[in-house]
Amino acid sequence: MHAYDPNNIFAKILRGELPCYKVYEDDRAFAFLDIMPRAPGHTLVLPKAPARNILDCPADDLAHVAKVTQKIAQAAMKVFAADGITVQQFNEGAGGQVVFHLHVHIIPRKAGVMMKPPASEKEKPDVLAELAKKLAAAIAAS
Ligand code: DGP
User: Fold this and answer.
1) Nearest-angstrom CA–CA distance, 109 and 59
2) What atom of ligand 1 comes closest to residue 99's alpha carbon?
3) Pocket lining: 98 vs ligand 1, CB cutoff 6 Å
4) Of 30, 99, 118, 136, which has the fewest beta carbons less than 10 angstroms from its beta carbon?
5) How many distinct structural domains can be found in the chain?
6) Does the pLDDT value for residue 88 go beyond 90?
7) 3 located within any domain
8) Domain of 86?
9) How far apart are CA 21 and CA 11, in angstroms?
C-alpha cells in the first residue's frame, strides 16, 4: 500500500485550500457534500487525521467516523424525506477508491429510484449550497 499523500484533494479541502459544501465538523471529523452525487444529499464523512483508508486508520478515528456517519444518516432521513440510506466505503484502487483520504459515502435513497453511476455528473453549485444548508441545520438540531 502507498503512503498517505498530503496533497490529495480531500486533504486540501480539510486544510481549507479548496472549497466544499460543509455539513458538519467536530474536533476529529469533517463532512461535506459530494460534488458528483449519486443521489441528492450524497455526503462524505472523513476523519481529520491523515488516513488513506480503513487499512491505515487508527481504530478510534474510524469509530468516530462511524458515529458521525450515523448522526448524518439520521438527519438525512428526515431532511430529505428519504426511504433509506446507502453507506459505501472503498479501500485502494482495486476496492473502488479514487480519492486517497478515508471517506464514507452517505447516500439518501428514495424507494424505486436507482443511484446515478459513480462520479458521473457534477451537481450545480446553487443546488449543492441549498442541500448543504438544509442538512447542516438538521444535523445541528439533532
Ligand atoms: P471514492 O474514492 O471512490 O470513494 O470516490 C470519491 C468521491 O469523491 C466521488 O464520489 C466523487 C467525489 N469527489 C471527487 N472530487 C471531489 C471534490 O473536489 N469535491 C467533492 N466534494 N467531492 C469530490
Assistant:
1) 29
2) 2
3) yes
4) 118
5) 1
6) yes
7) no
8) 9-141
9) 15
